[in-house]
Amino acid sequence: MEQLMFSGRQETYDVVVIGGGAGGMSAAVATARLGARVLLVEQYGFLGGAASHSQVLAYCGFYQKGATPVPAVLGIGAELLAELETIGQTVAPIMSRSGNWIVMLDPESVKFAFDRMSDVAGVHVRLHSKLTAVALDKGRIASVTLADHDGTVTIEAGSFVDASGEATLSVLAGARLTSDISRGNHVQPASMPVRIGGVAPDTPVDRTVLAGIIAQYNATSSDRPIPRADGGVISRLPISGDVWWMTIDLALGGLSGEDLWAVEREARRQAWRNLALIRQMPGFERAYLVATGPQIGIRETRRPLSRDDMTGAALEGGTRRSDGIGRAAWPMEVHEAPGQAFFVDVGGEGFADIPMGALQAADLGNLYLAGRVIGAEQAAYGSVRVMGTAFATGHAAGIAAALGVTARQVCVDELRRILVTQNAIV
């Protein structure tokens, strides 16, 4: 029997970034602005990360907690917000029920804004591309192999950035992990936010009525109870005016396609079940399900060990550091189980500095980390994983990766100087 094989291709870049979310796009744009030739790789057919593929339509971490919104993240993150405004989406922060400032999002605007930011910076982008293999040479990554419908391509580069969310690049490169769902480590549950239409703009959400509907359902149904007894997070989205509802929490079984199918199938079933319940609310009688994400919103699966993991103690004390490359201002939001979350506020001035070492893999000299892949202890991870903060860590990781193409040891002072010239907060 004749065996047909895809032909492999080979290309070279200065920097390769895996993952097209907030951390990855920021890293790629920052790298390109320093004149490096950079490739941004994304497995979906669009950029935007969890905001576009999981309907996580709120940016957290852009502002410190307080009576007024004080910026904690500027730089490329602020430019992205400005791009959203140009498209026509309001980015004015609103205070969430937890007392923290968030920016609500329109998913199509996010996709388009990420495209425009990448295009203007001159970033090379590959969509629909999966990372399948990593080649090492003397403790450094030499190349990665990608697969798409046209076959495989091997990409050589001087530096690499893991902004994949699931630490796929780090794992394939053999990096040590501090958290790994496949080894039985406890991880925070996943959530599936949904968009609901058919609700008039002036319709209020009566939380007392909603809580009563949920309590009645949980008391009388043999089905899985709804873990967020108060109805969860409900907000209006910009542009569409759709209702954004997050009340589906499920324990994640693993990372395999089979495991993800099981949890996502159950989440979609619950979305339709919950729709029938919310239709009992006054003004919601004609509500309908606009969208669920292409995937469930994953908070945590794997995390590599960095050279200097962010700690919960640093956040509680609001620690300042001379090697800080950005600010973590979102509280330590820890989801212990579905429907069970608590917040620990950041101390000091309302933020803590993220050390440069948290963006560098402990064992691989040219692997940098961005977004929810950065090095962090369990409690600290609840703060630094959010998308607003990911813009800051991606921005810094991209500059470090560009500098690391020609220098084995990145100078923190030089990195911080460049961040300041690019309007980032350090």
From TrEMBL:
Q: Which domain of life is it from?
A: Bacteria
Q: Which GO terms describe its molecular function?
A: 4 iron, 4 sulfur cluster binding; metal ion binding; oxidoreductase activity
Q: Which Pfam families match?
A: FAD_oxidored
Lineage of source species:
Bacteria, Pseudomonadati, Pseudomonadota, Alphaproteobacteria, Hyphomicrobiales
Q: Where are the transmembrane segments?
A: none
Q: Which UniProt keywords apply?
A: 4Fe-4S, Iron, Iron-sulfur, Metal-binding, Oxidoreductase
PANTHER family given in the database record: COB--COM HETERODISULFIDE REDUCTASE IRON-SULFUR SUBUNIT A (PTHR43498:SF1), FERREDOXIN:COB-COM HETERODISULFIDE REDUCTASE SUBUNIT A (PTHR43498)
What name goes with this protein? FAD dependent oxidoreductase
